[in-house]
Structures
1.
Amino acid sequence: MPNPQHQVVWAEIPVSDIEAARAFYSAVMKTDLTVDTSGPNPMVMFPTSDPEQGVAGHLYPGKPSQDGIGPTVHLLTPDDLETTADRVVEAGGKVLSPAIDIPAGSFIYTLDPDGNSVGWFHPKAA
């Protein structure tokens, strides 16, 4: 079997309060995240330009990580990392690292208000 185009299918971030988490991620991502109630639990969906082909994720009512112990989901930031870090703090999260450069761009590590580890990625200019 050949390797798939995308190894990650989607990401789920467990949160204790779906509406509070929606407000946090909407503020940091600078977009109004939508609630999907088509399944057994409400989910706050991360947007993509192509819902049929894009790899995204969602927030769901669940048991959050404790103090960042657990997987780290990296999300695309809508602008530079310094501005994103400011929005993380203003929205109730915590910044854990300075910008870390990698060949594809830069990212920071943060905690959301529930203690989930979240990386925010900014790609290099094309």
2.
Amino acid sequence: MMRPTIVITAGVTWHGATARPQHFARGLAQRGWNVLFVNAPISWLSPLKNKSLRSQLLPRNPVTTINDPTFTGQLRVLSPVAGLPFANMYRTVNKWNQSVLAQQIRGAMPGPYILFPMLPGSVDLIPHLTPVVTVYDCVDFHTEFEGLVNPTVVGNMEREIACHSRLVFATSDKLKSRMDEFHSDVRLLPNAAEVDHFAKTQSAHVHPALADIPGPRVGFIGGIGSWIDQEFIAGLAQARPNVHIVLIGPVETNVATLERCPNVHFLGLRPYQELPQFLAGFDATLMVFRNNELSQAVNPIKVYEYLAAGKEVISTPMYEVVTKMKELVWVAGTPDEGARALDQILAGCRRVDDATRQAFLDRNSWASRVAEVDATLRSLLPMK
């Protein structure tokens, strides 16, 4: 058998906020795999919400090769053409879109294929790619997303893709419990941090973009979508007007509430390599998600990264935080509780000692997660 190509269908784009799929793609390429990273799908209606997506409807250069001297395999990124809208509402639409996507995948990199999907809709790629192995990576409670989503349709696709998989990975306990209903072999594989990268924060110079924002500063890094608890951030900003809150990441929802706060600053999406410089300028960090089914199933990657940067973390009471990280972060259910935690942090208090923090990070690196995925995929292949 030829060396297979791992196809990762991601819910993010390669050049967007760096998250789980990019770490797996790079890590597996370093371990000798050929990897095709498929950017998050968009439809012909997407530019109505985000005008910057107009140029991606028909990408001029749909396939990009990522060059890195550490790769012993090949990594390419596919930017698919825009699909028909309403794919998460009507299964027939999704089947059509996935059939078109399959043609683009075959043109981007040869098979045979290992399908490593992170989206339920990828189930309709299977008849076209006939992968030798499918392993579903369940990273979100997909039926709970807002917008053009029919929970029944998405739920059925997720159940089917789990059934087609040799095994299922899940990032959190709640997602694992859900996937346990569909598959007999579901393995917990939480998020992690690129520990060495974020450890650079300790010696990094503060990013010049923070020069005009006075301290003390509290930072949030990540996508700013409907899942963010804007009321919490606004309440914290109002309670501590002398503190400046800096939000780094793409804005994907209405943020009028926060724009009215004079001490809240939006700096947009910044390169992953520059994040330690921003973190070096923060006195504390935020992980604030709304309390709903979607957020309670999230294993928050940013908490791992904040801790790897040596920063104190104020988090809303997300299930994964409360059950697995409570001793490492400051849990705050209200803006007032967040303000009191911030006061203690600014006074020099630390939630945990360095040894305990480092022990946690040693168990939760992307290197160890990639090693587990690599070993799992090799064990499933019908070859040595």
3.
Amino acid sequence: MSATDYGLIGHPLGHSLSPQIHAALLEAAGLPGRYDLFDILPDQLGETVRRLGRERLGFNCTIPYKEQVMPLLESLDPVAGRIRSVNTVWRNRGYNTDYDAFRHDCPLSSGDHVLILGAGGVSRTMAFAAADAGCVLRIVARRPQQARDLACAVQTACPAADIACPEDLDAWRRDADGANRWIALNGTPVGLWPHVAKMPLAPDDLSFCRFVYDTIYNPVATRLVLAARSRGIRAKGGLGMLFGQALAAQKIWNPQSVFPEPAMAGVCAALEAEIWRQFPLTVLLSGFMGSGKTTVGRLLARQMQLPFVDLDQQIEKEAGRSIPDMFARDGEVAFRSLERRLLEDIVRQPYSKILATGGGALTGPDIAPVLAAAPTRVVYLDIQPERLVERLGRGRGRPMLAGKDFGQWRALYDERRPRYLERADLVVDTAPPADRVAAFIWQRLGLEETT
């Protein structure tokens, strides 16, 4: 090992992105060195910290050692000392770069009403940051006593802070007064890959919120973030904070080095792509026949550099004949059975992809287990019925529409649309040109904050 090496201690480390981030930062700054993972047990902590202090220029700490490492260090930066949490070590001194990274990525102002979900390590950082900013702070956690302990620690450091711990979300809802004023900060793992269908708040709770910040970064946009964005609420995921704390650590370890802004934007883009690679997610495009799922899907896949799969094409390939022929020979029940089986097979394949589904693929009553079989995101391409007439004509090649008049088309549309909306993580208007629709979806699924 050399004095230009770095590393991360924690347990378990799992799919840590730290090596990729720090390798990219070192390369961008023209610095030598490598970054290694040290997945250690508690009884190895003392010896590991002493060894890394001798052999490494610097190292990071993650759960469960952010507090346990402090007695092993010679000194603490004031922020780390107040928060009682260390994530970066340099020359046997402990720092907390999460704090500044969060404040930069999620600016807060005096008087903001802030709801923090969870009372673990990242919630601790956010609570101190919110109190320092002069926010009205409420902490709700699955274990209420843990929330109260955190509130006590923050109150001791910030005696003037307005802070309380509702017993649960119902108590917070009563306190919210129906006002659209809250900033919701998620510090829980709810929604973390691969359990991406979960949300730490109910969708109706978003009516109380004007901004949502989710510290989860895999997936880049959690269901909570997408639900907020679909309602026109500003929302961000935690990738910016993850990148920010790593960059701040590098600046501590290499104070004379320059990290160029254009290169940093490239590092963020590469990091987002790496998350799509390491944490497979299938983006399913749903919607009525003629909504543009295949056209938009191909464009979106090209923009995101992901594979594109057309479910109808896969069905025809498997059956060896066209879909109209399948309907004519075997009937709709047989077609739906094959459609469901292939859909489940495709979403289970362990790589990220864009999947264009058939108009009825996600409308069946038994589709929930299929979507739960693997991490998915459902994007509903919403189209007005009048535009369908322009696009579909007489419905040639579409067995569900062939021979039907507009009134019959409209009845099928009205029947399916509530099901599309029920399944959707994101609803997109297809009125703009297809390339703009694809770009909009990519933006909403990604790191960039949108309104």
